[in-house]
Each structure stands twice: as C-alpha cells, then as structure tokens.
Amino acid sequence: MGMFEEAYQQLNAAQKKAVDHIDGPVLVVAGPGTGKTQLLSMRVANILRKTDVDSGNILCLTFTNKAALNMRERLLTLTDGAARDVVVKTFHSFAAEIMNMYPDYFWNGARLSTAPDWTQNEIIQDILASLPLSDPLALRFAGNFTAGRDVKNALKYAKEAGLTPEKLQAIITANLAYIDSIEAELCEILSAPLRAKALPELVRRIEALPNQGLQTNLEPLQDLGQVIKDSLHEAVRKDEGTGKTKHTGTWKQRWVQSVEGSKAIHKERERNKWWLSLAGVYQSYRSQLHQRGYYDYSDMIVEVITQLEQHAGMRADAQERFQYVLIDEFQDTNAAQLRLAHLIADHESNDNKPNIMAVGDDDQSIYKFNGAELSNMLSFKRSYTDTEIIVLTDNYRSSQAILETSAKIIEPVQDRLVNREPGISKDLQAQKPPSQAGELLHLRYATEEYELSGVAERIAKEYAAGNHSITVLARDHASLRRMASLLHAANVPVAYDQQSNILDHSAIRQIYAIGQCIIAIQQGNSDQLNAWLSTVLRAPMWNISAEVLWELASKTYPHKSWFEYMLQSDDEQLSSIANWLLWLSQQASQEPLPIVLEYVLGLRASQNITSPMRQYYLDTSEKKIDSEYLLTLSAVRLLETLAHDFARGPQATLADFVRFMQLSYETDEIIADESCFVTGDNAVELLTVHKAKGLEFDTVYIINAVDAHWRPNAGGRKCPANLPLQPVGDDLDDFARLMYVAATRAKRTLIAASYQQDTTGKEVLATPLLADVLPVVDADSEVSDRPVAVLEQHLAWPRLNVSNELLNLRGRLETFSLSASALLNFLDLTTGGPANFLETNLLSLPSPTNSSMAFGNAMHSALEYAQIAVNADALHTKKVLQQFEKALAQQQLPKNEEARFNIHGQDLLTKLLASDTFWIGKGGLPEQKLSDVRIGQARVNGTLDRIDQKDTVITIVDYKTGKPLSSLTTRDQSKVTKAWRHRTQLIFYAMLLKNSSRFKAQEVKGQLWYLEASASKELIREYNPSTEEIDELEALITVIWPKIMTLNLPDTTNYSADYSGITTFIEDLLTKKI
User: Fold this and answer.
1) Torsion angle of the four alpha carbons 856, 858, 862, 868, in this order, in degrees rounded to the nearest 10
2) Tell me: the pLDDT tens digits for 833-855?
3) Is the peptide bond before 558 cis (omega within 30 degrees of 0)?
C-alpha cells in the first residue's frame, strides 16, 4: 500500500468526501484540530492521481508564509515528490508572481519596490498639507492632521476591498447623486411622528422608493436604496409585538437628521463627502508612490485584479495555467483576495462551477483588521452554482473537556455560520483525546506582578517534570517580554519573536547624536553642539577615559565651546573626533544621505579617523553572535534601509533625516523590528494569540485575561452605508473568537490567569469571556509569601540575551533560500568561503555602497526597461537612457562617482542600442525571479536577467559589467576563478529552470553579455550547461544545505585561497571528506 492509500484509509467520512470531490466549487468548514491541512494535501495528491493535469496547474493559496512552507513539505511527503511543482503561495506572493510573469502589464513595465511605512506616512502628510482648508481631511489640531491615521486606515480598507481610486470615486459619486434624488421624499415620509400601528404603512412607502441601480457584483458593495429598506425591515422586526417604535426610531435618526432647522440626510452625505475627498487623496498617493519608485504592499493585489479584469488574454492565460485552486484559512481572506482567487479560478468554460476549494472556520476569524469578514464565507456559496458544503467535526487534537470548554466561549457569539446557514452543526468530538487528563483553571492573582511570577513558577515546575509542550499566549508583547525574562531567569528555555523599537537601541541613539552634532556645526549652534557632544563622547565605542572627559568638561566650564577646545586639544583622539565631525559637516551638505550614514557607521573610510561604530558593534571577530549582537545588526540594517528609502524623497539631506528621527522620538513613533529570541531546544513558546493560529500544545497558558486586554476598541471613521469597507469595529464577538482560538490550541491543559488590582490599587475585572467557563482559583498563596522577591523580579529591566549562534539564527535559517551569489560566496575561498557566506548571506553585515555594483544595477534596470519596450513595440533610446539615469540616482552613490558613471553608462547604452551585435528580441522575458524551487531539501532561488524562449529551447541571458572574459573555460590563472564563477552562475540558472514548474524546456542554453566589451566579438560568450554539470551542482547543494541549516560551516584554513583550493574544496564536499 502506497503512502497516499495508507493516509486515505485514515481519513474520516467527511474528509474522504472532500478529498474525492475533485471538480466544482467546494466549501469545507473545518473546526480546530479537524485535520484541514492534511485534507488539503490529500486533495492535491488525489487530483494528481485522478486527472491528467500537471502538478504546476494546481494553485494553493495560504494566509502565511509558514503555512505555505508546511503545506509544501506535506505535499512532497504524500506524493513522493510528484507534487514538487504545485504552486503554494500566500495571496501577496502569488500577486507578486503574476506581476513577475506579466511585467508588461504593470506600471508601464516599471519595476517598483514596496514602500516602507515611513514613506507612506510622509506622502500622506504631504498630500494632506496641500489640500484646501475647506477639505474635511485638512483639519489640524496642535499642528497635526487629525485625519492622518483615518486616511491611512481608509486607504488600507479600500485596497483590501479591491477598489482602485477610480472605482471608489465612481461609487461615492453615485451615492451622493442617489442621496440627492431621494432626500426630499424620504424626509417627507419621515416628517410625521412614528406610531407602532403605522409601521406597515411606513414600510410600504419606503419600499416604494426607487433603488440606486448599482451593479453590486463587487464585494462588499450594496445598493444604497436596498440598504435603507433592509435596515428598516430589521428595525420593524425588532419592534413587532412590543407596541413601541424604539428600534424604528433609531433607524429614522440614522437616515434623517435636523441641522439648524433643516431636515436632510446629513450624516450619510457627510460620510460620502469624506470618502470622495479620500478618493482624490488615494489617486495622488498612488501617483506619488509610483513617481518615487514604490508601490504600497496592498497595491499588489489591487493592481493584479485590475489587470486581470482589463486584459482577457492575460486572464485566460493565467486561468489556463491554474486549473485547480485551493484556499486555506478562507475565513481570514478579505474581499480583494477573494476577488483574485475568483478571477483565476472562474474560467468561462466552467459554467460558474470552477474547480475551487475553500477551507476555513468562521469561529476562528481573527483578522478582521485585515478586512476578513464572515460575509466572505457566505458570499462563496452565493457566488458559485451548486457549491458543495462539507463540515468537519472530528477533532484529533484536544480532549473532550477542552472542546466543551471552548464551545462555551464561542456559543454566545451571534454572527456565526451555524446561525446563518440552516442544517450546519459544528459540535466537535474528540477522536484522539490525550491519555492523561489535564487541568482547566482560571488562576486569579492580586496584581499583575504576582500573576506573571506565579505563572512563571508553575511553568518552571511543569517543565522540570517533563512537559515541554507549553505555550504562553497574550494579547500584547509587553507581558510576553516580561514573561520571557522571568522564564529565562528560571533556566526555562523560551522561544519568543520579540518586537523592539530600533530607536531605543544604543547604536541608533549614537548615530542620531552624531547627526545632531553635524547639524549644530553647520548651523553654528554652540549650545546645541555642546549638549550633543556630551552624549557622543561618553559612548563606550570611543573608549575615552573618564579623566579626559572630566578635563574637557572642567576646561570649558561654564560657557566655552567644547568643539573649539577639542579642535585645539593636545589629546590626539579628541582633536581627531572634532576634525572628523567638521569634515562630516562638509560632506553632509554635498553627498547623498546614505553615503554620509556609511561614514558615520564606519563602513567607508573618512578623513582623520574612521568611525569605530562598525568595529565596536558589528565586528564578528571580536563578538559572539548572540541575541544582543543580532538585535544591533538588525537595527543598523533597518536604519540603513530607512535612510535609502528616505533619500528617494524630495528632501534627502541629513538635516531632514535627523528631524525625522527627532520627531519620531518626540511623538513616541515606533520603527518596529522583529527578531527571534530562542534560549534552547524544546522551548516554551511565547506568542500573541494571532501568532498561535494553527499551532497546538499540551498546555496553554492565557495570561492577562482581564477586561482591559480583551474588550473592543472605539470605532474609527465610518464608511458609506452601502460600502462596509471598514471592519464593523471590534465587538465582544471578535474577542470571543480570539479567545476561542487561544483555548483550542490546548490538547489537555488550559489555564487562564488574571489579576485584581492595577499598580494604583484600582480594581481590575477579569474578562467576561471566561465567565462560567473555567473554575476560578485564588492563586495568591503561590507567591504571596515572598512579596519582596516578586517585586525585585519586576524592577529589573528584562534582559533577553543568549549566545548560542544556531538558536539565534534559527529564525533566519527557517526561511533561508540559496541563491547563486550565496552559493558562490560559500565556495569561493578567494573571498573567504564559508566565513564570508556567514557574514554576507546569513548575518547580512552592513557594507559600503559598491560603485561598480551600483552601476551594474542601473544598467540592468535600463536593459530590463528596454526589453519591456521592445515587447510593446515602443523602444526609444532616449527613454532607456532616462531609465538608466533614474536607476543610477537611486543607488545613492557619492556625487562625483554618480556623475562619472552616468556619463559612462549613457555612452555605453547609446553604443549598445545602435550596435548590430547587441540585440533585444521581441517576446523575451525581462528579469524573471524564480523562487520556491527545491533541490532535495534545499530551498533555492534566483533572478535571471532575461529569458529568450523558442519552441523547446530556452536561452538564459545574463548581463555583466566589467572587463569581458576571452573564454569561460580559460586557463589563465589570473582569470580562472572569475570564469568559474560565471560558469557556475549559468549552471545554477539552468538548474533552476530545470526544476521550475513555470518553464518546460528540453534544452537550456546560456549566454553572458559583457556590456563593456570594447569589440563586438567580445560581447557575447556562450556556455551551455550539460546535464552532468547540473546534476553535480545539485549534488553539491544537497551536501552544503545541511551544513548551512546546522551552521556546521567547514573550516577552510587548510585550503589555498585560489582556484586550485576551490576545486579541492568542492571535491572534498562531494566526497564528504569534510
């Protein structure tokens, strides 16, 4: 019996029904622990067994990258590798794949990158500042725009609904016109006082109003007239039999208001005017983003939907490729994601019965803030003819006691599928309960400090007794961070994805202080300079003795300039620092912001001295790769990215950037960074409830189960009545679903913990979600005998540090994918081999901008643009040169280097495009990103500059800048390593194509185009990778991969740092001598 047959026999009847129902629309309602992931994988395997479709014709859409990774692993196991080419993506990564497959359709072929939050905020602020003062979005309070947060949220909601600015504007304009058309008649109908006996007549007259007549096939758009009528029916239904008009009166006030004696549909009109203004902001926002070379992350799906709707050929091509679509965690999808899946699946030949399966559970819908709504599950049934609904109720995770306890949490929720769809029952039954019963408790402590200390002690005892399957769940990171510190101090291994603000890091504060010094020098502000120098000089990285600092302070007291004293000081270090700052103040007015930052970081040699910052904070030769080191590294890298992104804006000076940081400090703005803190194997996992989705543990602790942490927030900006873009506003039902998800992570033990007083002694209530659900136990006796020790535990600032390199890099290794450049870094002993790979590819240490690489990037961008233009029959040399100049400017080179490379690149491109030897054929694919490729267990990826395809022959074109090689098999010892690198790169790309589901080729050829060749005969070097070379490279990767995953990087000190050493090193890897 094969693996599939064996797994199939273990399925229950409902699961088998879902697996066997291959064709047509299927909605599977799968409660927690009912085996939905196995079901999805089995259904894919069954499609491959029973149909002739290729595995690359199956698309699986998931909600998280981790879920996609898990599904892919399970598919490969179940099908013995036959499902290797099944496309498993998140919605956003699938949208990116579509954009990569059809680049000509998006943004006129321009390559844009995702806009960071700070760029989005800056653009929104600029747009609001340009609005007339009469605009409802232009209101200010204390100098800040009151609508700033509402605008950003509203833009997000519009995109999650799949609305472009044009669609949004058209809908709102139609709404305002409809309000104008019915306002007088509606006001006349509602002019008389309401009477219970007259309600039927009121309904009749309202029903007689004309409907709006909108096409409402776009979720969640509804006809405004129908919304008015349906809401009246609901109000009248509630008033029936009461003899009163309470609910109908509320309905009347909702639709007609009196303002200054004038009755009209005031509120709804004002709402729509606000959103009409927003549509204009939306249009300007997208335009400015694109001008800066960005797109909003949410734009990806909206843009793909727009192009699929507008281009029938592109849509048909995508539908032809993806003949089966499966959606996991369907309850978490929003309207735009649902629309995207529909466009891919609903081929016209399907007769509204596409091969699409959606699996989800409305009771676990906890992403309303991302636009996910129960209505998505209901609309699935409405959208497709003869939808098969299958409900899974057999639970294979928890004890029956856990299931019954969880049911008490979710049953009070009103808006559930079981209440909307007759005949659906979701009473979960335990099929594989744990052998030992666990505890179900609500522990109540006096204070939060007692609670966290008490829970930590219980976990430490439980862990010591042998239970290592434990999680602590919370609503926020503050309590998890404190719990991590307590458990770490108790020698309990913990795993925690901590969130931190990079602005709080000492290295970032030092950069900020140096920036303030530079600006003070430029402005001649001696007082400010004195203040900031006192911060800079005391930093440990300068290693200035206390005696020197005291002497500086005393000699300049009370009004003398520290800076002038330092410039003239006999102390060589002080004078060097002062001269360095003076030199930096000059550079800051001439060079791009990122270059100035490189000087500050010590990545680029400076006049007088080189900043010690890189060596002090980031030098791996002197520091352990512990969690503190990685936090610093991550913070510096994020700041570098921020600087590069900031430099794309209209204001890109150091002064502007420092002002941005200053404003962030003053307004408590958070520039968040997330890093994994792991202190050992079999660790207790500390998670927010949202992060815990899909996981399971023997024991679950829910901490801070108090009303303040588990209650709804106030609603924000209201949407038009017929366009419910915004989540209705978190209500208690939403928090009940969140608590239900938390509780159903448990296999046998579920413990909630709360406290009764806050730090001021004010009473704190437990969340009502757990009322009558868990037995309450007063747990103060566990910790009350040692109050001083408990207090001291919480006075200490939480320290999260551990020096195990593998544990600290585990998070990166879990998602690491091997590229050609990473492989070459590992193998090339002339540049450091595995040690260089660690620093460059795993740690990603900051490095100065490489001018040659920047020039190469700009040339690649120009030629990519040229290919897209050729495909559209619109090649113009002038526009290619403009694209090069724009791309080069974005590299943020020193001004003199940018000017030099700009002249060189313009000349080079002009000659190339006029040359008969250099040609760009129509139909070539520009810059193709190939990811999700597997070589054994290894994840590999690559970006190919260009692909030319003719029949079954694919030619890889790789553009190179720099001096050309005379031959890729040269024996010239000065060039042999370079030739090996170029050959290996082509072999790697051929291997990617061979293993990718997107390309089916019998023959793969390779070409290197040396763009700076002085003679036409030197321009192109061909190399056609053989099957043997590809097989050997695959074998090499399968050897290297486990070494990377375990950080068991080979010691290469006994190999010569030349081509001979490289070949010996590779041979020893293949023969497993090392």
Assistant:
1) 90
2) 998 898 888 887 767 778 899 99
3) yes
Compute the distance between CA of residue 63 and CA of residue 690 in angstroms, rounded to an integer: 12
The verdict on whether omega for the bond into residue 220 sits within 30 degrees of 0, i.e. cis, is yes
CB neighbourhood size of 339 (10 A): 21
* CA nearest neighbour of 373 among 740, 741, 725: 725
Q: How many helices (H) and strands (E) does the chain have?
A: 41, 27
Rounded to an integer, what distance in angstroms lies between the CA atom of residue 271 and that of residue 252?
Answer: 17
Please check the confidence at residue 859 and state whether its pLDDT lies above 90: yes
* Cα 619 from Cα 596, distance rounded (Å): 20
Which structure tokens are listed for 618?
Answer: 């980031």
The domain ranges of the chain are 3-110+303-392, 116-295, 440-493+679-795, 503-660, 816-1070
pLDDT mean over 477-495: 89
* Angle between helix 148-160 and 335-345 (nearest 10): 20
Of 60, 33, 61, 63, nearest to 47 (Cα)?
A: 60
The C-alpha atoms of residue 1006 and residue 990 are separated, in whole angstroms, by 8
d(CA 748, CA 1072): 45
Q: Report the DSSP beta bridge partners of residue 495.
A: 678, 685
- Looking at every residue in the chain, the average pLDDT score rounds to 88
Q: pLDDT tens, 236-283?
A: 999 998 999 999 999 999 999 998 889 999 999 999 999 999 999 999
Cα 322 to chain centroid distance, Å, stands at 25
Q: For the CA atoms of 389, 390, 395, 396, what is the dihedral angle to 10 degrees?
A: -130
Please choose, from the candidates 418, 354, 358, 361, the residue with its C-alpha nearest in 3D space to the C-alpha of residue 386.
354
Q: Does position 132 have pLDDT exceeding 70, yes or no?
A: yes
Which residues contact residue 62 at a Cβ distance below 8 angstroms, ignoring those fewer than 6 apart? 68, 71, 88, 89, 90, 328, 329
Chain centroid to Cα 196, Å, comes to 53
Q: Are 556 and 591 in contact (CB under 8 A)?
A: no
Q: Which fold has domain 503-660?
A: PCRA; domain 4 (1.10.486)
Q: Which amino acid is at 565?
A: Y
Instruction: Write out the two tokens for 367.
Output: 């992403």
Sequence-distant (≥ 6) Cβ neighbours of residue 16 within 8 angstroms = 8
User: Measuring CA to CA, which residue among 1064, 982, 1052, 1061 is closest to residue 1023?
Assistant: 982
CA torsion sign for 832, 837, 843, 846 is positive
Residue 140 corresponds to which tokens in the numbers above? 């200010």
What are the helix (H) ranges across 322-471? 335-345, 374-383, 400-410, 417-420, 448-464
- What is the pairing mode between strands 140-141 and 26-30? unpaired
Domain 440-493+679-795 has CATH 3.10.150.10: no
What are the structure tokens assigned to 621, written together?
A: 């030769």
Task: Say how far apart CA 973 and CA 178 lie, in whole Å.
Answer: 79
Element (H, E) at 258: strand 257-259
Comparing 3-110+303-392 with 440-493+679-795, is the CATH topology the same? yes
- Distance (Å, whole) CA 402 – CA 430: 9
Q: Which of 246-260, 306-320, 357-371, 968-982 has the lowest mean pLDDT?
A: 357-371
Per-residue pLDDT of 887-916, as tens digits, reads: 998 888 888 889 999 999 999 999 999 998
pLDDT (tens digit per residue) in 375-395? 677 778 878 878 999 999 999
Q: Does domain 816-1070 have CATH number 3.90.320.10?
A: yes
Yes or no: say if 657 and 503 are a contact pair by the CB < 8 Å rule: no
pLDDT of 685 over the 60 cut = yes
Instruction: Note the pLDDT of residue 997.
Output: 80
When the candidates are 3.40.50.300, 2.170.150.40, 3.40.50.720, 3.90.1480.10, the CATH number that belongs to 3-110+303-392 is 3.40.50.300
Q: How far is residue 541's CA from residue 536's CA, in Å, rounded to a whole number?
A: 10
Residue type, 397: R
Query: What is the spatial distance between Cα 863 and Cα 869, in angstroms, rounded to a whole number?
Result: 10
